[in-house]
């Protein structure tokens, strides 16, 4: 099992690291400060300028769509990409700079794997070029959405169209003015259809009549404008029947193809966030003194720093192992490994970030370090793309199967 970076990508990785540390990280604060200027749900001229100039530099250097491990991509394996995504976790604007941001990468994956030629032309090409953005709509307010068999948004056939009715919420990126397309998980089958064949995924342009953005859901009081996590109502929204992905009843099949890579990318970035928190914690604890000593030498701070280093190393190895499992091409065998890291990476990164916040005192929870925003984001990762408990269930079931000889 080779968990190392393919050495031919080392210069690219060094350049990504340099851009993240020297150019992108310092622009995050300026980008956020612009949110309060004018309409929160449009990009200010300065925000657009920041993003577009970073994107064009990344594109010129060939640091573009690095996530795409398929034919025609830059040629990275999932293991290779883990090293890049970790760097991108260290600045808010970094994933979009390299066209590696969620939920677009997952949606591009769906169009690549399951989209018709017409869908590829209409949506995949502009997404791969970074010209538009997209959202993925699965979660609903009225059902426990960690069990996707509960998804209820109705989608019925009417002549050459499908008609959608119902509500979705927590649609990340749907507030972005550049968001042009949704991939929506819907219910098409009745109770007589087997449970995992009742659902489908359908492509809906964001300007289809009958779509209402009801509100932005807040993450600990922050609406995360201008991208947001939107609560959306569909009232008699009509789309042509050709917008159905793969065919009715194939929703679960597509969800598996989409969520595996998306989940592990979040984990890779979370490890980068843990590294950033540890670096900030170390720098602060050496610079600042209390009771006649640097903070590093007080109380249990040595242990916190040591534990953080050990946790990061363990999580990184687990993440690389899960990435390697994905590269072997058996999604079913990789799933419990992805679930393991989906529990562990956000957990350790959140713990280390919390410790770093503590080391900074009051400044740690303020806008003067990236830690507070990072803490809130990591906390959401313990829910988004499946809550911890659901992933633990997957891990335990895989473990127990070894003793019961039940089929995978
Ligand atoms: C910031 C953020 C961004 C998001 N982005 C998106 C997005 O872009 N698109 C989208 O569709 N959704 C998105 N989500 C929604 C997210 O995926 C759901 O919140 C998640 O799947 C859980 O669904 P739920 O909120 O309905 O919780 P529920 O299903 O109601 O679960 C609540 C709790 O029940 C418990 N529970 C559930 N199952 C088990 C079990 N098997 N064993 C033990 N306990 C269990 C757990 O404690 C769980 O946290 C986002 C969420 C957040 C916070």
CATH architecture of the largest domain: Up-down Bundle
Order of the strands making up the biggest sheet: 2-3-7-6
Number of strands: 9
The hetero compounds bound to this protein are: flavin-adenine dinucleotide
Gyration radius, in Å: 22 Å
* Helical amount: 40-55%
User: Whole-Å distance between the termini?
Assistant: 23 Å
Strand content: 5-15%
User: What is the CATH fold-level name of the largest domain?
Assistant: Butyryl-CoA Dehydrogenase, subunit A, domain 3
Shape verdict: globular
Q: What is the CATH class designation of the largest domain?
A: Mainly Alpha
Q: CATH H-level name of the largest domain... which superfamily?
A: Butyryl-CoA Dehydrogenase, subunit A, domain 3
Count of domain modules: 3
Secondary-structure element order, N to C: HHHHHHEEEEEEEHEEHHHH
Question: How is the biggest beta sheet arranged?
Answer: 4 strands, antiparallel
Which features characterize this protein?
408 residues; alpha+beta; Butyryl-Coa Dehydrogenase, subunit A, domain 1; Butyryl-CoA Dehydrogenase, subunit A, domain 2; Butyryl-CoA Dehydrogenase, subunit A, domain 3; 3 domains; binds flavin-adenine dinucleotide
